[in-house]
What does this fold into?
Amino acid sequence: MSYGVANPEPGLIYSWILTLANGLQVTNTTGAGLISLGWRQCTFMWQTLSANQYIENNFVTDSASDSYGSKRMDVVVWWPEASAQTVRNQVSLKLKNPQNVVLAQANTPQQVWQKITYVQPGNTLIPSGSYTIRIDVGTLQPTASNVRLFLTACTRPE
It folds into this structure.
């Protein structure tokens, strides 16, 4: 995988677009809305999983190094599927704080992406620590043996 301009990973770029979209509705027919380039800290990952597998990715945030402060965390997982598929792959997404408390989750069938947004309550910044992003793969389309997942997570000001 490459983060460079010369040879970017297309699936990762798409997950970036979904993560950084400011629009209220992110759909596969109307686009991702306005893009916010005001992210503070990000993590990226791609992984291939089989049915009934999961992966956890730690996203370490450091509010001390975030001079502008972040109150919001956006997490997206995207996976490519053929347009002719009649059965969609089932993928869910969960974000847990350093104390292992679930902050946000998504499990919407019939989509090829999941997005969750967590906003720190009150007038405080997201605390430093290791946040856990869990991706669960349930059933896959009958002809698939695995699914390739692209994850992007970023913090930014609210």
Notes: The domain at 10-156 is CATH 2.60.120.380 (Jelly Rolls). The radius of gyration is 16 Å.
